[in-house]
Amino acid sequence: EPTVRTELMEQIPPIAIFLQESRPKFPTAFFEYLMPIVVRYLTDVNNQVRKAGQEALLILLEQDLVAQSDIENKVCPILLDLSAPDSDDEYKVEAVNIICKMASMLSRTTVEHMLLPRFCELCSDGKLFQVRKICAANFGDICNAVGQEATERLLIPKFFELCSDSVWGMRKACAECFMAVSYTTSPEVRRSKLSPVFISLISDTCRWVRQAAFQSLGPFISTFANPSSAGLYIREDGTLSIRPSAQDVNANSCQPSNNVTVMSSSANAA
């Protein structure tokens, strides 16, 4: 019964955590018994079971419970098969979604060598606009996962394709993640290549694309600033933040309780 398999998948993460904590007693139980089940259920015929398997896999990766060898030898090959050009549409959409979500949890080498080539192919998928939209929405995360060199060499050309896609939702998604992509590139690429493309998004024929571009204008401009002087930096969640100056830190350290109280009161009032 699919409901039984779904329930089983939901129990995998807590069992895996227990086995990890009791590893001296069960040194190979997770890798021999549980991991094969998770991988198998990624291709289950029932979509609810597959969804539960995908969620379990992401939790296991987030908790760093999956060995690097299992990721490269068991998980990635399955995802590459599911996202292949001749794969079923539903499976392909799910696979690219997992690839995008897990990229930030894997090593840069694994992402660049095993997943990046397929991601670049999926960005140009002419059959399913849903696949291209997932790629566009997560483009900044992939750039951050592989770093500047791979971004400029392989990803930027694909990003420009998506920025001029015939589907306006694709262009809107690109405008929304423009800052994250720009942050991963060199100042010269920002100036000479990204800026003209951003101007085209601000001038787009679709008002939803223009609106998204104008909302990203400030964050995009901030990537041109020198972080050491401007105090701007990107948090782990991809949001732009301001690092307080040394003068502000010293001032706050003199009156920590008053500053914290005022900020908390304002937040509560809001």
TrEMBL record:
One of its GO terms (molecular function) is protein phosphatase regulator activity. InterPro entries: ARM-like, ARM-type_fold, HEAT, HEAT_type_2, PP2A_Regulatory_Subunit_A. One of its GO terms (cellular component) is cytoplasm. It holds the Pfam family HEAT. Keywords: Repeat. HEAT repeats lie at residues 115-154. PROSITE patterns: HEAT_REPEAT. The keyword Repeat applies. This is PP4R1 phosphatase.
